Amino acid sequence: MVDWLLALGAGLIAGAALVVGAAVAWIVRVPQRVVSAVMAFGSGVLISALAFDLIGEANDAGGFWATMAGFVLGSVVYVIANVVLDRKDKRNRRGSSESPGTGGGIVIGALLDGLPESAVLGLSMVGGGGVSVPILLAIAISNIPEGLSATADLKRDGRRPGYVFGLWIGITLACGIASLAGFALLEDAPAGVSAFVTAIAAGAILAMICDTMIPEAFRDEKAYTGLIATLGFFASFGIHQLAG
Q1: pLDDT at residue 133 above 90?
Q2: pTM recorded for the entire structure
Q3: Which of 37, 141, 161, 226 has its CA 20 to 30 A from that of 24?
């Protein structure tokens, strides 16, 4: 029972970073270049986490083919979902000068990013290893600028605080449930199945980085995006080595 609560709590903590970013954006006006710099840093952190804590461990546990099948599937599902949302004008692509779309589109977009990430937190606990600290930090760091950026746009559009924070709190609860599901549903699953599902989340995260985070970071931090992302990778890899 303690492990279930830990999985739920880890997902809530990761999702709460969205609320933190939203609160900062609502209270103060954060320069877009700062948001973009944090986005670039978070991209590097996530790339390191998915390489060493997701794909690497999935491959060790379930083998190459199960891992690669899940990895490709996760990427394809994420990209198709984004294409469908774009065509329906539910979510404008990051990196454009357009507004982020409707409130429903923002919820869907954040869920597309957050649910696979949170499920991985629960999966990291399978086998009694506890929550992966590098993955938790990577998700939290990447969620803060998303909350910042979207809330700043919603505030400019005249949305009320109850509406804005209701969206992010709802997504936070969904992230907690996704983390709990990742642990509970796969606690006794074969290694190949766990590796496949972990790799699905990793593929979705990498597609999200390329489609969402890097374009937005590059929009305002063109000259330094690569360097900042490298520093994020370095920080995450250092945590991985020290925590391991």
Answers
A1: no
A2: 0.79
A3: 226
